[in-house]
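Form 12-C: Joint structure prediction
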Amino acid sequence: MSREDDILQRLQREQVTITDDEAFTDFIMSAIPEKKPVRKPLWLPVARLLYAAAVVAVVYSLLPAGGVQDTASYSENRNIMAQYGNSFSSIDKNGTPGEILRCYVEQRKANVSIIKHLKSQTYENLR
Amino acid sequence: MQANEKILEKCKDGDREAFRSVVQCYQRMVFSLALKMLCDEEEAKDAVQDTFLKMWQNISDYKKGANAATWIYTIASHVCLDRLRRKQREQSLPADEELLRAYVEEENPERRLENSELGRVVRLLAEGLSPKQHLVFTLSHLEGLSTGEIMEISGLDASQIKSNLYVARQSIRKRLKELGYE
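Section 2 - Result
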């Protein structure tokens, strides 16, 4: 057996000492409140799950159907970006969560379209 | 050392006296883990108190039939890891090296380390380990728990435990080598 194993085995055999078990228990119990612990209701996890599902459903309903469509032109998209970009800060402060999300989605749509446009431009130039 | 189901059910109903008997049953076990993790007697005592307070607050999470010791170890591990992450890691002192030398060369097998000495020896050996490596090393080598139990307590899988233990052992081997032990 190596010296290392020997030391670790000896340490494993070491027992901690508690000089006064009763006093130690009293010390621990002094932190335990008199009030009975609250039993967590069984329906709580189910309610949490339903809440999460509802949030996902709302977010999903706000997203554009059929993914991001590249219908607007490059300049139109730039305008949308500017428009929503400018209003974003005020909506961010004063808007409802729905407005903020809608603004974000519009910006994102426009952004994706711009990237698509730039990509196609780059391919054109390469050709 | 297992607290029986009936007592734990009473605790769920807010019976403080029943809880007191659970504390009596497991306080030494939790103190042992806390001392080896935090390497400081006073802090270990506070950690034991925190552990039982958390246990009381979350007693309804205890599942009937589950191993109470493993559940308490899990709570204690979280408490110790939190404290270990928060606190400034203490450097070992030359006096700790002297203590280890005396311990290794001790001829009397009956000689036992006092709590503070045990804390100092563990601090010296575990210096440089991450909190998670320290936990896995303590549970495995100092508390003698199985890999299955450590998996349940730490939430790590077998390969993560193996790699943490490997790093911990390498570090301890290096430490002992520095001290002149091969």
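Section 3 - Comments
Chain B has nine helices and no strands. The interface with chain A takes residues 12-14, 16, 19-20, 23-24, 27-28, 31-32, 35, 45, 48-50, 52-53, 56-61, 103-104, 112-115, 118, 121-122, 125, 141-144, 169, 172-173, 176, 181-182 of chain B (CB under 8 Å).
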